Structures are given as structure tokens and as C-alpha cells.
Amino acid sequence: MTDTSHYEALGVPKTATADEIKRAYRKMARKYHPDVNTGPDADAKFKAAGAAYDVLRDPEKRAAYDRFGADWDQPRPDPAHQAAQDGPWQGGFAFDERDINPDMFREFFGQRFGGQPDQYAKVEISLEEAIAGGKRTLSFRVPQVDGSGHVTMKTRTLDLTIPKGIQPGQQLRLQGQGQGGADILIEVDFAPHPVYRIEGRDLYVTLPVTPWEAALGGKVKMPTPTGAVDLTIPADARQGQKLRLRGRGLPGAQKGDLYAVLEIVNPPKLSAETRALYAQLAKAQRFNPRAKLGV
Hints:
With 295 residues, the chain is an alpha+beta fold. It contains nine helices and twelve strands.
């Protein structure tokens, strides 16, 4: 029987598109992230969603999973089949579709004419890597022709330095590291984050608060990429109100900010005592939120 556990972990059918899979992962990650959900099964569901997305977001991994199920990443007895199944790139490193042209293949097989055109690749990093910077070792395979004229796949590794504050869409150049001494331009993309939304150098996080925290104000804990901090909620806070933490976004010559977007959340269930207090509030507070509707 075909294994569908990864699809079930994200709550999508096998026919789901790449965008549907990405949206489903973001929804599950927000729902079960340890910073926002401390339920007994939240951690397991969060990890299962992450493992599922790691496979289903990659077309080659997904194709192998659909064919072989849970053993999709195990060695196959037929090397030719395995090479075709895996494709030439590994480790989140893949040629951009702009290079799918005859010149690229001439370069690989020693038939390049003229200069040395740049080769393009993409790498996906985490938000935390972009903030802290660091090193990443990329592993990939390239075709080569052996002495008898047969095409074989050769594994190569490259060390990539990720500068602090890099943004999605920026390119890193590895000079002379490509096939035949060409440069490799690596476009950086960010993996979807379960907590933060990225806009330029600014970060946004949806911060749940209770109705009384919004009404009375006070300090609450909120996550930041470098650890939780105390945030002061002003009295009479509104749904969707943005509170800014300066300089807590992506680093750079001009640091980005971190915005907490308030989301007022009611308790899932009211006790008899709490319900009585709400009844007192309803009598004491003469407020009609539908007055502008004429009712």
C-alpha cells in the first residue's frame, strides 16, 4: 500500500500543488509551534509537519516518496535508475531553470564554445542562518565523461559563506567554482518560518493576547529570533495593532525592526466564575460594537 503519512501530516491530498503544500505547512507550523502551543501532542505534530514538508517541497524527493513510500531515500539496486530518480543536485542546491539550455549541457560535456558563462543555483536557508550568518557545505553531483566515453556522475562539495543580514533573492558569487572554471551565482531563498513573516528587513510575528491583556495592558512574553523578551501591551490595545521592537529584524547597515501584530484570543472554554464576571462586565460596560451598522 502506498505510504501517505507525509500528506496526512500536512492535511493535504496527494494531488496538492506546491503552493498548497507550502500553505498547509505554514498553517500546521503556526498551530503547533512550541512557542504557541504547549499541548501534549503539539511537538510531535510540529516535527511531523516539518519532516513532511522537507520531502514534499522537493519535486524529486516527492516523486521518490510517491513511488517508494517511507523507503524513498534508501539505496536502490539499479544505479542508473537511482541516478535518474535523485537528479544531479542534493542538499537543497539546484540549478535554476534559467540554465536549462544547450549551452549548459555543452559546458558539462566539454563542448562549450566561447567564454565561460555563469552557472546559476539556488540554496534555501533558515531565517536564523540569515540573522547569524555562518557556513554551509553544499553537496551536488555533476556529469562527467570518463576515458571510455561514458557519462558518470561525480559528487562535488562547495563551502558557502552566508553573510549576516542576507535577504531573499540576493545572490552570492563563487568565483571559478563552476564547471570549467566558470563562476557560480547562488540565489538565496528563505525556508518558510513557522513564527515570523519577512518583509524586506522587517519581521512580523502574530502575538496572541487575552481580552483582559488587551483591555488592561501589561507585560507579556513574546518570541524573537534571539530569544523571548518582555513586551509591554498598552491599555485598550486593538485587534491587529502593531507594536514595534526597533532593530530586532534582519541585521545590516540599516537594521530591520520586529513587529508584534496583536491577535485577541478568547479562552477556549469559560468556567462558571469567569462567565459570571463576563455577565457583570456586560451590564457595567455600555458598548455596542454594531452601532455603526444601525442596529
